[in-house]
Amino acid sequence: MALAGGYRRCTTTLLPAAVTSKMRNTLFASTAPMSTNSSSTMELDAYARTSKNQYAAHGHSRHLLQSSMERLAQRCDFEDRTSCMDGAPRRRRHIVDLGSADGTSTMTTLQFAVTSLNQATDEGPIPLHATFEDHPASDENKLRSTLDQHDGWFKRNDISRDILMRSFYEPLFQPESIDFLMSYICLHWLDSSSSDDIAAWKRLGIDNDHTDLLRKFTQVNETSAPESVRRHWRTNLAHCHLAKFLALRAKEMRPGAEAVLVMVGHPHGFMTPEDGGPSPMTRAIIRCIERGDVREAILRQTIVPYFLRTEEDVRAAFDMTANIEIPVESAGTSSTDAGLIAKPGALLELIDCHSFETITAGSDDDDVIGGAFDLFWSIHSNSVISSGATADELDILKKETRRVFYEVYDAEEGISSTFIALVVRKAQGSNGAHDATCVNTALVPTSSGRFTIANGMSAAMGQFTGTYPNVLPHLTLV
Questions:
Q1: Most confident of 25-29, 52-56, 260-264
Q2: What average pLDDT is seen over the chain?
Q3: Are the C-beta atoms of 477 and 464 separated by less than 8 Å?
Q4: Distance between alpha carbon 34 and the CA centroid of its chain, in Å?
Q5: Tell me, what's the pLDDT at 381?
Q6: Residue 239's closest CA among 350, 314, 348?
Q7: What Å distances lie between residue 477 and 158, 394, 465, 474, CA to CA?
Q8: CB distance 388 to 311 below 8 Å
Q9: What is the pLDDT of residues 244-262, one digit of tens each?
Q10: What pTM was estimated for this model as a whole?
Q11: What is the DSSP string of 319-347?
Q12: pLDDT, tens digit, for every residue of 418-436?
């Protein structure tokens, strides 16, 4: 169904049935931005073990990835033909995965993407350079080891590669250097490097007369979290952080380049169980406090720094992107371009945005609820550690949280999980960054199957249009 703004709503719901047995252990979080003064917000080793069947969220957005690869192939074919006419060598395209974690799911998705790309091109396999990004607190050696296991595949497909250990909430690449980027199940994590005191986020929207509310929740999407807190997080954190991410990437994407982004959405059974109560972690901490096994300060200080968005939240954040200013020094351009490149997000177009549901649980050969708990604990336990919990308190809380899982969730149905998928494209813009060469030409498909072709000459000469694949003989000036 077409909606205003150029995107479609397409919701896929997988109800508990035989089909859900193929989707056990769906990934809840791939990689998380970390605070500047700590290790990962997740327990990475445990996470790597428990997310082995995380691929359902990737699979249900695969059609978006395939379509994006087909459009990239068309742009590459046109650019290669024009560069060949000028005697220029074929350009190696730069593709990026943001939040690669240990690389296991990334490689499966990348292999599908490259196959789709090369099947759609008329000019033969496309040389690529792939960058795998993750936060510096993550395990670079584990990621490198996974990639090295696929060294033969990289060579056969003429793909060079590198690893970038930096947060994706900061500038990463040169302006207009990226041909395609993807990020799977990361962007619900907020930019925790933006604050030296993440625990203070829990107090947003709570005045000094109502600090007892801090004992009711550990994550803001819980039904027990005050609406005032959730509203502050949505407006002042979640929207702003996603808009910042998109604006940064807009500066780095070439005209016509696309990004496929998938994140955990709301509602999710981990935070909103079907019985309407708080999350298993919050229940467990409250019980342990009541028994005298855990200090109340742990509950007051524990906050998980992610926000689960709805489709409407994602669209609202996207609308903010056009007004995000990127400092000139971050953009890497001359001061004469400052007024033109300060808001690169204004060049982004929202191509698709939709939600879908999967089931989170252990795999068929596991204890179904136990597997879901292991995944949950690997994601959330570091937030308890950051609150100051001792080793004894953490052990007690882990056991109690496991008990809550078996009380709250049904092994036959698993845990309902929502994901949001979106595709954005950078449109052609006049920002002084192009020269009048075919190599920098952008080929942007239109709904009619024709293409808008524009380069640095467009400001003076207008735009060219043509029909693919026989574009060159049929260019007309409009």
A1: 260-264
A2: 80
A3: yes
A4: 15
A5: 96
A6: 314
A7: 37, 69, 7, 10
A8: no
A9: 999 999 999 999 999 999 9
A10: 0.81
A11: HHHTTPPPPHHHHT--GGGHHHHS-GGGG
A12: 999 999 999 986 443 333 2
**Sheet of strand 415-426, all strands in order from the earlier edge strand to the far edge:** 159-165, 128-134, 93-98, 178-184, 253-268, 415-426, 348-360
Give the pLDDT confidence score for residue 123 in this predicted structure.
85
CA atoms within 13 A on the CB side of 348: 32
Contact 39, 45 (CB under 8 A): no
Question: Rounded distance, CA 109 to CA 107, Å?
Answer: 5
Neighbours of 261 (CB within 10 A): 25
Are β-strands 415-426 and 253-268 bridged in parallel, bridged antiparallel, or unpaired? antiparallel
CA 193 to chain centroid: 17
Other Cβ atoms within 10 Å of 201 Cβ, number: 20
CA distance 269 to 267: 7
Indicate the DSSP class of residue 136. T
H or E element that contains 107 = helix 104-120
Tell me the backbone φ, ψ of residue 274, rounded to 5 degrees: -65, -20
Residue 234 tokens read as: 């949505």
On whether the CB atoms of residues 133 and 168 are closer than 8 A, the answer is: yes
Q: Which residues contact 97 (CB under 8 A, 6 or more apart)?
A: 106, 109, 110, 130, 131, 132, 133, 181, 182, 183, 184
